[in-house]
Amino acid sequence: MEKVEKPFNELAGFHTYDLLVLLRLVRKERTKAYDLMLTLKKAAKSPQIDEVIVNYSED
């Protein structure tokens, strides 16, 4: 994933196929981050969950 942080000048030299694969990876990571954000928003709005249930689910 370190390739996504390269400057445009370096990415411009990549083959089209490599750029498409890189784009797919970036989109997958973005989707994971977005889904996590939505989960956290839903958890903040949901009623409090009993601590016993939380501890059980962590085990």
Polypeptide structure, described:
The chain is mainly α and 59 residues long. 71% of the residues lie in helices and 0% in strands. The model has no long low-confidence stretch (mean pLDDT 81).
Quick overview of this protein structure:
Helix content is 71%, strand content 0%. It has helices spanning 8-11, 16-45, 51-58. The radius of gyration is 19 Å and the shape is rod-shaped.
Shape: rod-shaped
Structural class determined from secondary elements: mainly alpha
By DSSP, the count of extended strands is 0
Helix content: over 70%
Put simply, the count of helices is 3
Q: Element order, helices and strands?
A: HHH
User: What's the story with the biggest beta sheet?
Assistant: none
Give start-end ranges of low-pLDDT stretches. none
Task: Note the gap between the termini.
Answer: 32 Å
Radius of gyration: 19 Å
How much strand?
under 5%
Report the average pLDDT across residues: 81
